[in-house]
Design goal:
The chain is mainly β and 199 residues long. The protein has one domain: Alpha-Beta Complex (Sulfite Oxidase, Chain A, domain 2), CATH 3.90.420.10. It is built from 2 helices and 11 strands; from the N terminus they run βββαββαββββββ. The strands form 2 sheets. Strands 1, 4, 5, 8, 9 and 10 form a 6-stranded mixed beta sheet that branches. A 5-stranded mixed beta sheet has the order 3-2-11-6-7. The relative contact order is 0.19. The structure holds the ligand Nc1nc2c(c(=O)[nH]1)N[C@H]1C(S)=C(S)[C@@H](COP(=O)(O)O)O[C@H]1N2 and molybdenum atom.
């Protein structure tokens, strides 16, 4: 008999069980940016989904925050080996944004203000796996962590969670983003330790 009783959700997972291979726990929130922090005022922020057929769907900040929001609490795993557990965000599920977008695409290129890009399969943005996050721990997302709005895709390494997100380009064929084109893994599953090409 274990000393922890099983609830309806099953046994709570110990923090070491929530740590993917090769990761260590951190309590602080490191900032990792490939360039300077773009300053994008919320009232000038826009987000566009462009389909492979050239159709564009655009939301302003006011339109985004008027959409149904979720408050996911998720674990973050950076390829540089730190993980941070139980981070709380508020944002809009990509399911909501993609609901009325007609596409035959299987891939997405995420674009940020400042020029950063990252690619992922479109299905990894669906089914409750990804959000446009505009609040962190009850406050606006700090600029250095991607505010006013960052993508949050916590089941992949954190380089896929584009900060200062400005749009998603839907693509029929996969293409590498910024880090993926200089040696990072195309997919980046922390549980399979897909850090670099060939992992
Ligand atoms: N636009 C943009 N998004 C980005 C990055 C970046 O340089 N530019 N760095 C990525 C990397 S490598 C990581 S680990 C996380 C870091 O997020 P944080 O600075 O909030 O910890 O953001 C990701 N998103
Ligand atoms: Mo990273």
């Amino acid at each position: 008999m274990g000393i922890v009783s099983r609830g309806f959700q099953g046994r709570p997972r110990r923090s070491d069980e929530r740590l993917p291979p090769g990761q260590y726990l951190t309590e602080d929130f490191p900032v990792l940016s490939a360039g300077p922090t773009p300053r994008v005022p919320a009232d000038r922020w826009e987000f566009t989904i462009a389909t492979e057929a050239g159709t564009r769907h655009t939301w302003t900040w006011a339109q985004l925050i008027a959409l149904p929001a979720e408050e996911p609490t998720v674990d973050l795993h950076c390829v540089t080996k730190w993980s941070k557990l139980d981070t709380s965000w508020r944002g809009v599920s990509l399911d909501v944004l993609l609901e009325d977008v007609a596409t035959a695409a299987d891939f997405a290129m995420v674009h940020s203000y400042g020029g950063y890009t990252t690619n992922l399969p479109l299905e990894d943005l669906l089914d409750g796996q990804a959000w446009l996050a505009y609040a962190y721990e009850g406050e606006d997302v700090p600029a250095e962590h991607g505010g006013p709005v960052r993508l949050l895709v916590p089941h992949l390494y954190l380089w896929k969670s584009a900060k200062w997100v400005r749009g998603i380009e839907l693509m029929l064929e996969d293409e590498p983003g910024f880090w993926e084109s200089i040696g990072y893994h195309d997919y980046g599953d922390p549980w399979r330790e897909q850090r670099y090409q060939g992992d």
